[in-house]
Amino acid sequence: MKERRAGTGIFAAARIKQSGGRPPDAGRGFWRMKLEWNRKYTTIAVYALLVLCGAILFSWSVSHWGQFFGWIGSLVSPIKPIFYGFAIAYLLNPIMVWFETKAVSRIPIREKHRRVASMLLTYLITFSLLISFMLIIVPQVFISASNLLSKIQAYTAAAEALATDLFSRVPPGLIPDDVVSRITDAAGSMVENLFSWLGASIPVMISWTFGVTSGIIQWIMGIIVSIYLLASKEKFFAQIRKFTCAFFSPGMVHNLQAVTATTHNMFGRFITGKIIDSIIIGILCFIGLSVMKMPNIILVSFIVGVTNVIPYFGPFIGAIPSFFIIAIDSPLQGLVFLVFVLVLQQLDGNVIGPMILGDSTGLSAFWVVFAILFFGGVFGVFGMFIGVPTFGVIYWLFRQTINHKLGQKGYPTETDAYYEPGHPQDRAAKKQDKPDA
Q1: Distances from the Cα of 151 to the Cαs of 1, 164, 275, 306, in angstroms?
Q2: 392 with 288, same domain?
Q3: CA–CA separation, 307 vs 370, rounded Å?
Q4: DSSP letter string over 68-118?
Q5: pLDDT tens for residues 287-306?
């Protein structure tokens, strides 16, 4: 042991001598220094980096809007059946729960077989209704559309005959020949453009047919996915809770569950209620148009019922094409239809809608219009439909956060306390300083 220490000492002395009397590790003390991490500044640096990356991504997505959504679409496209399956399962889950708890529960079968029987009844009834709707309504819609096209062609032919008759009655020389030739050339070019448009639309129709076929296949895969989701929904929920409990604090887990429950309540009540409301409006429109003996009743009722899914603007969006459909046959009936739609919209907004939907989102009329305009401008018709419940969730999150901050400061959380100018703390101090009468 002594020789080992002596040898080590000799080698150490030799190394010091070679380094000019300075320990050889003295210049590397900085590199051997232990790097102490400051949790506070590390967290700030990580947040700053995330904010910087988010700002760069947002700036690029705004400047390359179309390319950004195209990139998102290419990523989402392979998993579209998953989203379709989730949507189908979400819409069918209340029906399945009703069967499982109200109807099938009375049948003396095993617990594991109740879910299978409830799912079977849910899919059978739902698809039976959809197929019946397609077999009854869709052919009538196509018949009404074909009759409308034939009437348009008849009106076009009548307009051409009227124009020819008017030109034949005009005395010779009253209209210059160049004007007549221009009108003739314009009519010929319109016909040529029409045929060229029809020729160009054939490839578009073919590609549209392939797109519809691909969409049908994706929806079929979505139905299969929805079956798996409904069959094992408790297991999926348990796995999600397990994940959140593993990576988040208990407070964060409770907050996530509260947000999830609020989102489910808002979306579930709004979507289900809006679908029921639209079906009722479509039926009332069909009854009203039948009593007034208007043309194209099924087509117009279908348009009004489908567009009524969009809040506020839906009835007016559906009324515009429906008015032209009816006015082609009878302009006076078209005006009567506009009055009827206005009355129907008032009935829906003041009686039927509040009775079915209630205050499902907690939004005022201004924020509803804002959500429809914003999400509709970004995501189109689909955004107009989901914009209200989505913005309702965002509005709820802001309201909860603001109320929490106000509660921590001891300030009132009611909005009525902030109508008067000034700070509520100053008003409270003035009330305390005011002598009693």
Answers
A1: 113, 20, 33, 25
A2: no
A3: 18
A4: HHHHHHHHHGGGHHHHHHHHHHHHHHHHHHHIIIIIGGGS---HHHHHHHH
A5: 998 998 888 788 888 888 88
Quick check: is 298 in a domain? yes
- C-alpha–C-alpha distance, residues 136 and 128, integer Å: 12
Rounded CA separation 87/119 (Å): 16
Do residues 308 and 318 make contact, with C-beta atoms less than 8 angstroms apart? yes
Within a domain: 355: yes
Q: Which helix (H) or strand (E) holds 432?
A: helix 424-433
> How many domains does the chain contain in total?
2
The answer to whether 274 and 263 have CB atoms below 8 angstroms apart is no
Structure tokens at 277: 């409301």
Supply the DSSP symbol for 310. Answer: S
Cβ neighbours of residue 313 under 8 Å, at least 6 residues apart? 372, 384
The pTM of this model reads 0.62
Rounded-to-integer distance, Cα 95 and Cα 122, Å? 6
Cβ atoms of 302 and 325 within 8 Å: the answer is no
Q: Give the end of a domain, one of 337, 360, 383.
A: 360
Angle of the 331-347 helix axis to the 314-329 helix axis, nearest 10: 160
> Identity (one letter) of the amino acid at 374?
F
Confidence of residue 14 (pLDDT cuts 50, 70, 90): very low
CA distance 224 to 152: 44
**pLDDT tens for residues 181-204?**
676 666 656 655 655 665 555 555
